[in-house]
Amino acid sequence: MPAPYAEYLNGRDPVDVMVETIPKTRAAVSRFRPEDFERSHAPGKWTAREVLIHMAHAEIVFGTRVRFALTTDDYIVQPFDQDAWMVLDQKGLDGPAALALFSFARAFNLGLYRQLSKEDRAK
Q: Cβ–Cβ contacts within 10 Å for residue 81, how many?
């Protein structure tokens, strides 16, 4: 069964695309002032800061899932409720700190992903 995000890769290697995400995300918010992180692109949508926190959450969760899948026979992926998690971290990080957490977690995971064999990736 193909990965749910494969259609967004345009045939590119997912690790290569993930490597690009750190500088692209940093560039996207490089000129943000503190108040810019608190803006939302539409009513009822997450702010830029919240999107960065969500990206950090997702990176932590996906990296953990990969590590469990690689080390646990018959591992069953555990879901997480992104909105419930956001409530927990609503005021915990400002925008630059959320960006730093995402960047660090992504870099940490990339260290693992780069060394995975074809068989490991299939898991």
A: 8
Q: For the CA atoms of 5, 9, 15, 21, what is the dihedral angle to 10 degrees?
A: -90
**86 near 53, Cβ under 8 Å?**
yes
pTM: 0.91
pLDDT tens readout for residues 87-110: 998 788 999 999 999 999 999 999
Taking 3-state DSSP, the helix, strand and coil percentages for the chain, each rounded to the nearest 5, stand at: 65, 0, 35
Instruction: Provide the pLDDT for residue 92.
Output: 81
Q: Distance between CA atoms of 118 and 123, rounded to whole angstroms? A: 9
Structure-token pair, residue 88: 């927990």
Q: What is the CA radius of gyration of the chain?
A: 16
